[in-house]
Write a structure and sequence with these properties.
Layout lengths: L1 H5 L3 E5 L5 H12 L2 E3 L22 H16 L3 E11 L7 E11 L4 E9 L6 E4 L2 H10 L7 E4 L11 E4 L2 H14 L3 E5 L7 H18 L12 E7 L13 E7 L6 E5 L18
Parallel strand pairs: 1-2, 1-3
Antiparallel strand pairs: 3-4, 4-5, 6-9, 7-8, 7-9, 10-11, 11-12
Helix pairs in contact: 2-6
């Protein structure tokens, strides 16, 4: 069913940061879509990691806006867009994570399907430095020069003219940091999280795309439409030791966008008991 929905159709990929490098091979191979990039498509208008432009909404709505804008520009009926965020892991707040979301919008079949990846493999980091040597030490910790760096006067800087992005060579780093320190005793450095300058994030986007394919290939048991996805997760997965209910998912509720069919699935993650280390009773 999914093959007849998407095979040989043109899909527009809303990106300016080379995400097609990982998204296109997966979707063209698995779904038969022919992906194209809209000309002069500026995704920075939907927010930047450097915060000089705020995101217009939450992660999901921003991904949707990107895809809808690509549809408006091209007149096509199928679009894909992704949006990433970085912060505390939803289940383990002490651990930083990269949350990647990718959306497929199909106006022909009135479908909106999401894929996602939550990864603790991220080099998202920032620091304040007072010297070139401190900047070089920080650069080593984030995997420079394979991963890019950003230099700005302070983390609250809103002036794009003061923000230097995409630093990927030692010579460039030395030049930019030296000039910035000439103007201020301290400067702010952070990892460039844009996909084309961050192979670690690009890998998470690939995994989110694979998850999107799985979501598309999950067909409704009633009408066989693709995208039979969980819309709600209910906690209560029992602890393996004391059997006390935990905050982890015990039941997921799936919903079909086409016919409205709903179904509960027990232990949707394939795990029937939680690690006692994550139990509030065993490990308060």
């Amino acid at each position: 069913m999914t093959h007849t929905f998407f095979a040989d159709r043109v899909g527009v990929l809303a990106t300016m940061h080379r995400k097609e490098k990982v998204i296109t091979p997966i979707l063209e191979r698995e779904l038969g879509i022919k992906l194209q990039i809209p000309e002069n498509f500026n995704t920075d208008r939907f927010g930047t990691f450097t915060r000089d432009l705020d995101r217009p909404g939450d992660q999901r709505s921003t991904a949707r806006l990107k895809a809808e804008r690509a549809l408006e520009l091209t007149g096509e009926s199928l679009a894909i867009a992704s949006e990433g965020s970085f912060g505390p892991h939803p289940s383990f707040p002490m651990i930083a994570c990269n949350y990647e979301l990718i959306i497929l919008i199909d106006r022909l079949h009135k479908l909106e399907i999401f894929g996602q990846e939550i990864s603790i493999e991220t080099n998202y980091s920032h620091t304040t430095v007072r010297s070139v040597e401190e900047a070089q030490i920080f650069a080593q910790t984030i995997g420079f020069p394979e991963h890019g760096l950003i230099v700005m006067p302070s983390p609250s800087t809103k002036n794009p003219n003061e923000i230097v992005k995409g630093i990927i060579s030692e010579a460039q780093l030395l030049s930019v940091v030296t000039e910035a320190l000439r103007r201020s005793p301290t400067i702010h450095l952070e990892t460039d999280m844009r996909a084309l300058y961050n192979p670690t994030r690009m890998n998470a986007i690939a995994k989110a795309t694979i998850n999107l394919v799985a979501a598309i290939q999950s067909n409704c048991p009633k009408c066989t439409y693709p995208g039979f996805e969980p819309v709600e997760r209910l906690p209560g997965l029992p602890c393996a030791l004391c059997h006390f209910p935990t905050a982890f998912t015990r039941v997921a509720i799936y919903h079909c966008q086409h016919c409205g069919f709903r179904q509960e699935k027990l232990f949707p993650d394939g795990i029937e008991a939680a690690d006692p280390a994550q139990c509030q009773y065993c490990n308060p």
